[in-house]
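Q&A log
Question type: sequence-to-structure
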Amino acid sequence: LTSTTPNQFYFNQALLRDTAYEMQLPNSIKKIHEVIVMAYKKALETRPHDPRYYEIGYHLEKAGQPKEAIEFYLKAAETARKNYQNEKALEYYTKVLTGISEEKSTLSYINILTDIFKLQTIIGKWKEALKTAEGAVNLAQKNTSMVYMAKAYKLLGEYQLLSGEYFEAKKHLLRAESYYTAANDQEGLIE
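Response status: OK
Response body:
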């Protein structure tokens, strides 16, 4: 253990740090993570060009604040996507899905599935993209919302279009169009 200032220390060895962490009581661990979150948020104010959204989300989750954690995981995913860090973005979007599924927010879930689908097609994960599109259709069918159905069938149609299955793609895209029309969602039709 090395002292940097009278009230600050750091561990020279990771094993000692991990052991000290594991010896803490659950409430103490939550407080540790809350302090870390405050430090990251303060650093974010002074260094906005160097966001640590994923780290903030992780520590919020450990501090028992899952709703706030989702927000930061989503920011981390969007930042990674904008910086063409597609694998990281997929990882972060998956963390968002885990949190959203607990809240049962279908539209948010389908929107995140759409983002995941787009990333999977960009990096060539075709089997995973098909599973994502089919998962969106299954979820939408359970909910029976016209907009959800439209978004889900649009994903499936896009997958089939990209994989050269034009007849199937046309069938699903027309189905999506009919759901958008039935829901009177002009914005969805334009997309």
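Response note: The radius of gyration is 21 Å.
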